[in-house]
Amino acid sequence: MRSMVFITGATGGLGKAFAVECASRGFDLFLTDISEPALARLSESLINTYDIKVLYYGCDLTDTYSRSSLYEHVRSRGLMSDFLINVAGLDFEGTFAERTPDQIRTMVRLNIEANLELTHELLKLRDPARTFRIINVSSLAAFYPMPVKAMYSASKRFLLNFSRALGEELRSRNVTVTALCPAGMPTNGGMI
Length: 192
Hints:
The chain is of the alpha/beta class. The protein has one domain (4-180): Rossmann fold, CATH 3.40.50.720. It contains 5 helices and 6 strands; from the N terminus they run βαβαβαβαβαβ. The chain has a 6-stranded parallel β-sheet with strand order 3-2-1-4-5-6, with helices on both faces. β5, α5 and β6 (175-180) form a beta-alpha-beta unit. The mean pLDDT is 93.
């Protein structure tokens, strides 16, 4: 099987834009997001428009069991990857003191934990004959402590620092790591 581009947060604005761009360049895709019906619609559209192979798996990346099921699904199909685009992310606007413990856990699980774990798993499934490329979607917020977005900017700073360090660690293994830091974007219900 040809290597695939893996995209998290694939049905949101930026994730969908990445999926369309990769499809238009002829890449086969593996898409994941929380909504399986939205993934099915996007996949069908990409297949019909670009005549590529698109696989998808609905996954709540904040849930460790759901993530484990995703990895097993990928491994059991013998899928390989030469590109990972980590788009999935979340923001809760408002002061830190207003956040609930569940909101704090959810943001850390999605913006940090899921990114790290998925990157770790897909490095094991890379096509060794090709350069493995990783894009982690950070944010312009990573460069500034932001009152009312304290958790978000801190989580995006984590992704920026992680991406820089990981890129250095993996340079000799034919892996590139890029941190994308866009400015504010319209998103779907807080998910980016």
